[in-house]
Amino acid sequence: MIPREHDPDACPTGTPGHDGSCACCELGRRRFLAGLSVLGTAAMAGPLLGTSARAAVPGPQVSVTPLNARPAFDRSKDIPWLGRLMASGQSNLSHGAAGHVVGVTSATFVFRYNISLTARRFYDRVQGYPRAIELAYGTRDVTVYIAREMSESQCAYDAVETHELKHVAVDHELVQTQGALLKERVNRIATQMTLLEASSSEALLEKFETQLNAGLTDLWAKFSSQRVDAQAKIDTPAEYARTAVVCGGVIPRIIVQHGH
C-alpha cells in the first residue's frame, strides 16, 4: 500500500473523517485524499450484515470529476531565474528549452478521491462497505512563467505566451479524453469491493484504500507517460527555430541586450 502522510494543507479539501481528520496518501505527483464517515460506533447486538449476505452488499456510487485549473501568470522572474528553475529538474515543468529559457509552464497533475463508508461496530470489530467513491483528477497549481525581459516587446511577450499556453492546452485535452477510462476503471474496482471487517474504522478504511490504490497505480503511470510524450511534441527544434525569428528576431535581441 502507498504509505500515508498527514498533510494539513491538503486534508481540508477532502471529506473529514468521523474524528475530523483526513487520511492522505501521495505517490509521485498524485495526491489521494480519503475521507471516512461512520454510522453507529457503539457496540451492536449483531453484525451489519450476515456472512451469507456479503455478496448482496450494494455497490458504491462512483463519480469522476475532471479538474482543469486556470493558469496563473508570473512575469516577475528574469531569464537566469527561469534557467535555474529548469535546471532543477522538477517533474512538473513542461518546458524543456535548451539554451536561454524565456518561458516555463509548471503544473501538477493529481488524482484525488474520497471514500465514504457505511460501517458499524460489532463488539470489538468494525464491519462496513463503501457507499460512495468520489474521484477528481486533473491539473492544479498551474503557473505560466514569462521572463520579465519579454515585457519590453509586446510581440515577444505574445509569442512566448502563445507557446506556453500550448502546454496548458495539452494538459486540458488529456484530462478531458481520459475521463471515461478512469470512470470505467473505478467502477471495475468498486464491483470487487464487498463487506469487510477490521479492528477499527481507520483500519477498515485502509483496506478499501489498498484496493483502490492498487487498481489505479498502473493507470496513473500510463497517464504520466502520455503527458510527458504529449508535452514533448510542443518543445521541438522547429518550434524553437520559429520563436527565434518571430517578430524579426526580437527575442534573441532582448536576450543579448541584457547580457544573458
Automatic annotation (TrEMBL):
Lineage of source species: Bacteria, Pseudomonadati, Pseudomonadota, Alphaproteobacteria, Rhodospirillales
Protein name: DUF922 domain-containing protein
Source domain of life: Bacteria
